Amino acid sequence: MRLTIEQFAEMMMDGRTEACWSEVRAMTEAGYNSLFVYEQLLAPAMNYIGDLWEQNLVSVADEHLASAVCEILLSRYGAMTMPASAHEGRAMLLCVEGEGHALGLKMAHALFREHGWDGRCFGAGLPLRDTLIHAMKWKPDVVALSAADPGLLPTLAEYVETLNGIPYAPVVMVGGRALLYAGADAALPGRATRMSGLAQLQAWLEAHRLARSAAGTRSGRLG
Question: Considering the domain 5-81, what is its CATH architecture?
């Protein structure tokens, strides 16, 4: 990586989208994969900016501009890495109601798509009723929920319990910083697949692909 996280974050807050994109492209051309781009560049840069904001060292405008730049980078990078077809399954991703931070969720969405999934990302704060209606209508194989605020753990638990009641039983995933807080496991008694980060999600996606491929091979032999 040619720049430090701090230097990259400064470019994002300056709105230097093309310069940021050049750095991302240089990383991919050097052989770095998506997980590295997300977890070692974009996420740390946004976390650094968030820390600066909490210390009143940057303004809300700075953070919003950086977020807008990050959105553009994710969109461009996602278009560059998306496979030609989506056949692994359907994934519905959303933040629970009250959660406004969705960049991590969008990185997860990009990983799903890169691994051949048909993904729909609803971003921040999708109400439970609307989540349930869309899940029943579209029938995704995975419903992924995100919450960063530990105060939203009861809300997250309500989503999990409700989605566990769907008759066709999709995989319910949960992720976000809220899961890092003490008591998070006790607050989520429902059946859910916990994701501690993008690396764990990528491992899950790769294992799913291998299992699906093996199942297809066995089916072909039996036929």
Answer: Orthogonal Bundle (1.10)
42 touches 32 (CB < 8 A) = no
pTM score over 0.85? yes
Type of residue numbered 198: L
Task: Say how many C-beta atoms besides its own lie within 10 A of residue 32's C-beta.
Answer: 15
The strands making up 142-146's β-sheet, listed across from edge to edge, are 117-121, 89-95, 142-146, 171-175, 193-194
May I ask the CATH class of domain 89-218? alpha beta
Cα gap 117→137, rounded to integer Å: 18
**Which tokens belong to 70?**
């990050």
Q: Are strands 142-146 and 171-175 parallel, antiparallel or unpaired?
A: parallel
- How far, in Å, CA of 184 to CA of 59, rounded? 31
pLDDT in tens, 102-157: 999 999 999 999 999 999 999 999 999 999 999 999 999 999 999 999 999 999 99
